Amino acid sequence: QFLMANKLDTAMWISRLFTVYCSALFVLPLLGLHEAASFYQRALLANALTSALRLHQRLPHFQLSRAFLAQALLEDSCHYLLYSLIFVNSYPVTMSIFPVLLFSLLHAATYTKKVLDARSSNSLPFLRNILEKLSANQQNILKFIACNEIFLMPATVFMLFSGQGSLLQPFIYYRFLTLRYSSRRNPYCRTLFTELRIVVEHLIMKPSCPVFVRRLCLSSISFISRLAPTVA
């Protein structure tokens, strides 16, 4: 009754569980490397479906207008719909599957807990214990996801020069990264950029750091700071 009363949430729960399943079979290629590549695509397509459903839930009345598009781009679900489209037809990159896997795992765990509560307050204690541990480590998981989002930017550039990526991919991914940086709901990408800057500046200001390395890092920090979007 609970699942039927929340059909859209249930559909997203199923698609997230499928995303976790496909992502796990890509990261751990138990069925062979050839099958792993197909699971990579399936995971991203399932994530795109979940993101589209979530976006429909947040903005139910679609309009073909600039204002609607601007509103949609503020939603995290729109960001990850774009993310899935960026990587779904690219060369499989293990790094790119972790944000999809972990977001799906966190959201699926939250809804699984609701399903268990609807069934009985004491049902499946072992599963509840796993879900509680996931919830307790949510902040660390979100930071890890943000770290993946940041370091995928140079990875897309490397893929371009190694012949495994397209010319447009780094530019589209940069747009995705600016959206994540400006996210209203998830500040972790912005926080990680700040923390990485503090760590790098601390390291390069040590007397043992070569001058040319210090200058290179400072100019890189200045360049990246100029690319960062203004956050209200």
UniProtKB/TrEMBL annotation:
GO terms for biological process: endoplasmic reticulum tubular network organization; membrane organization. It comes from the Eukaryota. The chain crosses the membrane at residues 12-33, 80-106, 150-174. The keyword Nucleus does not apply. This is TMM33 protein. The gene is Tmem33. Keywords: Membrane, Transmembrane, Transmembrane helix. InterPro entries: PER33/POM33_regulator, TMEM33/Pom33. It is found in: Membrane. It is a multi-pass membrane protein. Belongs to the PER33/POM33 family. GO terms for cellular component: endoplasmic reticulum; membrane. Pfam families: TMEM33_Pom33.
